Amino acid sequence: xxxxxxxxxxxxxxxxxxLLKMAEPIMHHREPEFEKIFAEIREGLKYLFRTKxxxxxxxxxxxxxxxGAVSNILSRGDKAIVVRGGKFGERWGEICKAxxxxxxxxxxxxxxxxxxxxxxxxxxxDPSIRAVYTQASETSTGVKHPIQEIAKIVKKYDNAVIVVDxxxxxxxxxxxxxxxxxxxxxxxxxxxxxxxxxxxFAALSDKAWRFVEKSNLPKYYFNFxxxxxxxxxxxxxxxPAISLFVGLRETxxxxxxxxxxxxxxxxxxxxxxxxxxxxxLGLELYAPESPSNALTAVKIPASIDGLKLQDLFFEKFGITxxxxxxxxxxxxxxxxxxxxxxxxxxxxxxxxxxxxLKEMGYRFELGTGLKAAxxxxxx
Length: 379
Ligand SMILES: Cc1ncc(COP(=O)(O)O)c(C=O)c1O
Prior knowledge:
four-stranded mixed beta sheet, binds pyridoxal-5'-phosphate, alpha/beta, 43% helix, seven-stranded mixed beta sheet
């Protein structure tokens, strides 16, 4: 018998009731029924992003909203700080460069969080910086960056905004947009939002909207002003991924029912149990100092072939875990616990990890990791 399990940090496993909803006959996106769904989604997204402002929805993967957060915020000749502590930080830099923006990188060792002071030093000495681009959770390394601290610094500068890629942050840990003064927050559907890939989100503060007014970079599909106008009429500017919108209404209702506090606590617990398990097995975390609750990046011991381990997860158990990217390739595996995951899901993947490590000759007592996880999951 073959069963498949997704433990990659996107796409993630989906609730069956949401899948069923999305399988219903498609409706037309200019019908009143769809407008009603759109209106509900707008409210649900404001609750999730913790903002009074509009959360724009685009039919694209997360990178689409990232691109929009450059092309709608900045103008020709602008300069931006980019926190580069992994693949997705690098992506901010690449997008900025594609639009002719001068990038001032803050390079961070992979597995470490950025030091906000480094950002402050640059902002202090260069008043022409217009934005700070960062991740809340750098999915390639499993690191959580200190967003609140960075936001406090950027807030002091009227001519600069903080733009947060929270693609694996929103719905995982608290990022109260309005309270912390986050100017742009980006997310995507295939993560904690428990949907297939295909929707991206962008929420903007009043300050960020003032930047949009002045922005003169080229844009067409990802036009925030145009999309806001449409959203205010419960419409999208172009044909949206209708079935995903239908699913989104369901998952937002699920999140509301559990309550954001409950959602964050669940992620905290699953993450803590996963970390405790791998440490009990004598393995090291790739991001020990500031781990994200979205995923756990585990260093593979030198005696084990990391790529083979990842392959075996799938071959033997039908489990997809993510490998390391770029310089971390073969050196880590990344186990996700964001979105539709519960306590026993983690027992399943950790049990597979133990069995595979044993088979590959790594020495430890079977059950050691599971015991450590169970002790936390029982709390
Ligand atoms: C932190 C982060 N940023 C950006 C992306 C890119 O999103 P997408 O692949 O949906 O374009 C991802 C996806 O894994 C991500 O985890």
